[in-house]
């Protein structure tokens, strides 16, 4: 809370404050906490506690009990749920599917977002149209995107994807969502089309913040387009790339909606992510306590990945500053 002390501007015994550059007496600013600050932040703290802190604590309590939806009395089981989850092969299979999806989706989402941003930044005609068309899919809800690709793009024989294959002379009838070889790739393509607009927007904002005089100086020195891209643009985008990679990895690890809608985790659970396994264990198997334990194990893994990425980015900044 900021309080302005106006007594310094009034005549008083003792030395007067030094005049400012404009001739007016200097104003002293005091910063301290008051009860009014707590009143202003109280609504946020209340909502934060209700929808984040309390569910976090409540879920942790469920994970050490035999909670279920059937309504039977829950018993304290300690770490039995955690031990069972660590030894459950379905947990590790779904975790591998999540990691595989993250690997397959992160690289194209970063690269495609960068390429689209470079194109939109350098195109000199109808720039607003390119920006709108590349960012617009990100505004669609996950249900709309999932049903669009499920019913229109990927149906066998009559879907748009098979029609595109037939148009170029290839054999249609690929089981885009029913064949284990293509199901995960189909979900990745859907995710790239849907969410690349966010990375594109971050890269475009970073490109517009690069000072133009750097390119002018490089051009005067005889640097070509590729050299300017390699020695100016990409280094200046390094910090943005780090942010995009971190956000994309965390978002991909939490994948659920599009896979649940498009494949339901199939075929043969080859695309089921760990969050869908938590959903199945809790709301289909009625084992809320066990599902909570699996979710907290997954939370610990995400926390480790986040801390590792934070450490690597901080280390890179320190090395670059030397």
What labels would you give this structure?
322 residues, mainly alpha, two-stranded antiparallel sheet, 13 helices, 2 strands, 66% helix, disordered N terminus
List the helices and strands and how they pair.
Blueprint: E1 2-5, E2 28-31, H1 35-62, H2 80-86, H3 89-122, H4 127-135, H5 142-153, H6 160-167, H7 183-208, H8 212-220, H9 225-236, H10 238-253, H11 257-262, H12 274-284, H13 288-321
Antiparallel strand pairs: 1-2
Helix pairs in contact: 1-13, 2-13, 3-4, 3-7, 3-10, 3-12, 7-10, 10-13, 12-13
Give structural notes.
The protein is mostly helical and 322 residues long. Helices cover 66% and strands 2% of the residues. The chain is built from 13 helices and two strands, in the order ββααααααααααααα. It has helices at residues 35-62, 80-86, 89-122, 127-135, 142-153, 160-167, 183-208, 212-220, 225-236, 238-253, 257-262, 274-284, 288-321; strands at residues 2-5, 28-31. The chain has a two-stranded antiparallel ribbon with strand order 1-2. α1 (35-62) packs across α13 and α2 (80-86) packs across α13 (288-321). The chain is globular, with a radius of gyration of 27 Å. Mean pLDDT is 85; it is low at 1-14.
């Amino acid at each position: 809370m900021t309080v302005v002390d106006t007594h310094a501007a009034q005549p008083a015994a003792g030395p007067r404050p030094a005049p400012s550059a404009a001739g007016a007496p200097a104003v002293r600013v005091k910063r301290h906490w008051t009860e009014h600050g707590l009143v202003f932040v109280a609504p946020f703290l209340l909502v934060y506690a209700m929808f984040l802190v309390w569910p976090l604590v409540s879920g942790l309590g469920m994970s050490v009990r035999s909670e279920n939806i059937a309504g039977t009395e829950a018993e304290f089981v300690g770490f039995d749920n955690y031990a069972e989850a660590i030894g459950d092969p379905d947990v590790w299979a779904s975790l591998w599917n999540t990691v595989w999806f993250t690997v397959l989706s992160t690289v194209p989402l970063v690269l495609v977002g960068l390429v689209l941003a470079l194109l939109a930044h350098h195109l000199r005609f109808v720039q607003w149209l390119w920006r709108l068309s590349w960012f617009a899919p990100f505004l669609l809800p996950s249900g709309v995107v999932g049903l669009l690709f499920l019913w229109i793009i990927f149906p066998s024989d009559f879907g748009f994807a098979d029609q595109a294959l037939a148009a170029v002379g290839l054999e249609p009838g690929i089981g885009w969502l029913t064949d284990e070889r293509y199901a995960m790739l189909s979900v990745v393509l859907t995710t790239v089309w849907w969410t690349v607009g966010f990375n594109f927007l971050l890269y475009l904002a970073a490109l517009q913040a690069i000072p133009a005089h750097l390119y002018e100086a490089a051009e005067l020195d005889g640097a070509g387009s590729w050299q300017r891209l390699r020695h100016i643009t990409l280094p200046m985008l390094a910090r943005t790339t780090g942010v995009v990679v971190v956000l994309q990895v965390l978002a991909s690890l939490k994948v659920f909606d599009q896979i649940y809608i498009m494949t339901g985790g199939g075929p043969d659970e080859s695309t089921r992510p760990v969050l869908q396994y938590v959903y199945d264990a809790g709301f289909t198997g009625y084992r809320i306590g066990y599902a909570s334990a699996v979710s907290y194990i997954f939370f610990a893994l995400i926390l480790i990945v986040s801390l590792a990425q934070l450490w690597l980015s901080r280390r890179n900044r320190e090395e670059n500053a030397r």
